[in-house]
Amino acid sequence: MPLLRTLPFFLILVVGGGLAIGYLTAPGSWYAGLEKPVFNPPNWVFGPVWGMLYVLIALAGTRVWLRERQSNAMRLWWLQLVLNFAWSPTFFSLHMVGAALVILVLLVAAVIAFIIARWRVDRLSALMFLPYAAWVLFAGFLNGAILILN
Question: What is the DSSP annotation of 39-64?
Answer without folding.
Answer: TPPPHHHHHHHHHHHHHHHHHHHHHH
